[in-house]
Specification:
The protein is mainly α. The chain has two domains: 197 residues, Growth Hormone, Chain: A (Up-down Bundle), CATH 1.20.1250; 217 residues, Growth Hormone, Chain: A (Up-down Bundle), CATH 1.20.1250.20. The chain has 14 helices and no strands. Helix 9 packs antiparallel against helix 10 and helix 11 runs antiparallel to helix 14. The radius of gyration is 22 Å and the shape is globular. It is found in: Cell membrane. Its main location: membrane.
């Protein structure tokens, strides 16, 4: 509990909580609104999801630079104020019934969001001692899990009770509260500006791009690392499909009139599955090779996703989703724990800088394909599940043939590098 005696940390923690709440509620409410308003055009809901992931492709190379070079407190606070302003404009766009304007504002708000969490996380690092980093990371993971489990449900409840306009008001209040909490923090200048004060004119786009180029060259030269980073690309593909397919399934197959509530059951099932799988993997990770925690669960996931397309029984669907989450948990832990062991500390930041854009690119590509295919070309949701299962199965074969061999080569090179 000592970490909660740090007032700055408490304020930043609740700022992140309210900021995440505003983002989650708005995203889910808009998805439900578009499915209700444009039932015969499900591609609108898919495009809305695309507006949340696509901005990463445009800002990923500058996000880390802004968090490291500018006043982190001002960056985080201003992100909240800007998002509050954009949310206010969203309110007006809905009254104008301008869906293109709504999509543009959602895109803009998501782009600003990409700058918030790197700056906020960097502030947390600056106000805690090293012994508290693990506690803070655990609390942030718990926060993510809570929204994974309850986010869709909260969005559904607010949308069903106060409508899309009420949900936007909740968004607006959330961002304002987050901004005020950050403003009230008294954070030393060394934590806010660790690299000294810098102006926009001092930022070189060429230097930022060179750093990212160095990262991808390093990844490509290390075959095992390249395979693991490719795994994050696949996570983006799966998360993109799961961002919209469950809502389509509930809307057009299981419960057209109450699909919001059933969509929240999907999130709860997947969230508890992730927690269960992560707990199991934490216990057994020291006893098995990392690739065992990757290859087997990926194979099971492909089979289970195929089953999602076959079943027309809701409870079977939800149990299958829970087991899928249990499979994904160990994969996350295995890859996340493996990478720091094979990446040089000096290059970890540049390697990590490629993960989010690759995931978001895969997610955006998946959402774009779904928007294009369904329902104009593929009018049955089941085929989308079958396609996703086939892609995951191909990844299983790729990993089954490469990871054990590459892991053995790395282990042997480490043995040879040890002093005799």
């Amino acid at each position: 509990m000592e970490i909660f005696r740090n007032r700055n940390f408490v304020k930043l923690f609740f700022a992140a909580l309210t900021s995440q709440m505003g983002t989650t509620i708005g995203n889910m409410a808009f998805a439900f609104y578009l499915l209700d308003r444009f039932s015969h055009q499900p591609s609108y809901a898919t495009i809305a999801e695309l507006m949340y992931s696509l901005p990463t492709v445009f800002v990923f190379f500058i996000v880390g630079v802004v968090a490291d070079r500018f006043d982190r407190k001002k960056v985080a606070e201003n992100c909240d104020w800007i998002r509050a302003g954009i949310t206010f404009l969203l309110f007006g766009a809905l009254f104008l019934n301008s869906i293109p304007l709504v999509f543009f504002l959602l895109f803009l708000r998501s782009a600003v969001t990409k700058f918030f969490f790197p700056a906020e996380n960097s502030l947390v690092q600056g106000i805690l001692n090293k012994d508290q980093y693990a506690q803070a990371a655990g609390l942030n993971q718990m926060l993510f899990s809570i929204f994974m489990v309850l986010g869709v449900g909260i969005g559904a409840v607010i949308y069903k009770t106060v409508g899309i306009h009420g949900a936007i008001v909740v968004d607006f209040i959330s961002f304002v509260v987050s901004a005020l909490l950050i403003r009230s923090c008294h954070i030393p200048k060394s934590a806010r500006l660790p690299n000294g004060k810098l102006e926009w004119k001092d930022i070189s786009l060429k230097t930022s791009l060179r750093d990212f180029k160095d990262g991808i060259v390093y990844i490509l030269k290390n075959r095992l690392l390249a395979m693991l980073v490719f795994g994050f690309f696949i996570f983006g593909f799966v998360s993109g499909a799961f961002a919209i397919l469950p809502m389509f399934t509930m809307k057009y197959e299981f419960s057209p009139s109450n699909y919001e509530w059933y969509a929240s059951f999907f999130a709860i099932s997947l969230g508890f599955g992730l927690l269960t799988g992560s707990a199991i993997a934490t216990v057994i990770s020291s006893r098995v090779k990392p690739y065992h925690l990757v290859i087997g669960p990926i194979f099971l996931t492909s089979i289970l996703v195929f089953l999602l397309g076959l079943t027309d029984v809701l409870w079977v669907y939800l149990i299958t989703v829970f087991i899928i989450g249990t499979c994904i948990g160990p994969i996350n832990i295995a890859i996340g724990g493996w990478m720091p062991k094979i990446v040089h500390p000096k290059l970890m930041g540049r390697v990590s800088g490629w993960i989010d854009p690759l995931m978001m690119f895969a997610q955006s590509m998946t959402l774009g394909m779904i928007a294009f295919l369904f329902p104009k070309i593929i009018d049955t949701i089941d085929y989308l599940y079958y396609g996703m299962a086939m892609v995951i199965l191909l990844v299983f074969f790729l990993y089954a043939f490469t990871l054990p061999k590459l892991s053995k080569l790395v282990d042997e090179s480490e043995k040879h590098s040890l002093p005799s």
